Amino acid sequence: MKVFLFLLLVFIFVGLEFDVVQSGTMVTGAVFCDQCKDGQVSMFDYPLSGMKVSMVCSGSDGKMTTVGKDTTNMFGNYGITFDGTPDLSTCFAQISPNSNVDPSNKCGAIPGSPKSVKLMFSMFDMAMYTVDPLISQPAQPMSSCSTPSSPPTSPSPVTLPPPTSSNPPPMGPIVPVTPSAPPKAPAPAFQLPPMIPLPPAPFLRSSACSYDYWMKAEYKCYWRAVKPETSVAEVFGPLAAQKYGSDITLYASLQGKGDPYKTLLRESVTALLNSWNSMRFPYFAPQVLHHFNKALMSDSTSSVLQTALKFRRVNTGSPCKFETCKS
Question: Which of 38, 190, 247, 312 is the most exposed place for a label (fewest CB within 10 A)?
Answer without folding.
Answer: 247
